[in-house]
Structures are given as structure tokens and as C-alpha cells.
Amino acid sequence: MRYKLDGDRGGSMIHIPYPNAGAYAVYMKGDLQQVSKWDSKLGRNEPLPKRRCGENRFIGIENILEIYLRPGCELEVRPKDSIMSKVRLSWTMDEFYADGGTVKFADRIAAALGIHASTIKVVAVYKGSVIIDFFIMAEDNDPDADKTLQNLS
Length: 153
Description:
Layout: E1 2-4, E2 12-17, E3 23-28, E4 31-33, E5 38-39, E6 44-45, E7 56-59, E8 64-69, E9 74-80, E10 82-89, H1 93-98, H2 101-113, E11 120-127, E12 130-137, H3 145-152
Antiparallel strand pairs: 1-9, 2-8, 3-4, 3-9, 5-6, 7-8, 10-12, 11-12
């Protein structure tokens, strides 16, 4: 899907609800736009500062993609090949974040699967012991993403 905001002033926040859980990426002129940083207090990516077109975050559990769009900026949202997963840990939230939080979690999952940690995308961390929703994605330059992901499942 492509999104463009006409006009010459201000910007707008776009909220795109997805009825299915999946991984999506935002591109501007073919360049992947990075998602906002993880906020351990919120258990999700931090709110968008609204400084540059293409800022985005996926809000796990609610399945909403938020994107900041400025006039004249054209963005494309593409689905990414991925495996969705959930893990429950017998830890408290404080223990989880004291032991490295989402970064160490992604590193450990990647090491166990023999893949690069950049392909692990944590989308939500919440209580119930500690529950982590995450995607395992094929790398952007993978010529056969479906086969790569099938080999992991």
C-alpha cells in the first residue's frame, strides 16, 4: 500500500489496524524506514517523536501500525515474510529487563536458531510471568524468503 499526504503544512499520524498479525515494513523511495526504539516501561516501541516522515512503530497485541507522514512524502507499506511466535518466561518483568531485556532475548533466540539477530523483531512484552510476542523475519535481500522461513519452522 502507498500513502501520500497532500498539502504544504504540518504532518499527520496514520493508524493502520491489521486484523491479522503479521510483520510489515515502511519504505520511503525504496529505503527501509527504521521503527522507533523499544521502551521497556511501555513494553512496546516508544511513541513517535514526529520529526521525520516515515517514523513508524508496530503496536503488538493491538495490531496497529503507526506512521508519521508529512506533506509531499510518499511511503509504501509492504508485508514481510515472517513467522509469528510467543514465549512465556517464568520471570518477573524486572528480572527480564535486568537480564538484558529484548536485546538479549533476540540475541539468544537468534543464536539458538543460527540466524542473525536483526531478523528477530520483538513487538510486545507484557505480564503473565513475562510474555514476549515476536516475529522471525527473512532478511530483506533473501532471494527465497519462504524457503528460509520454512527451514526454521
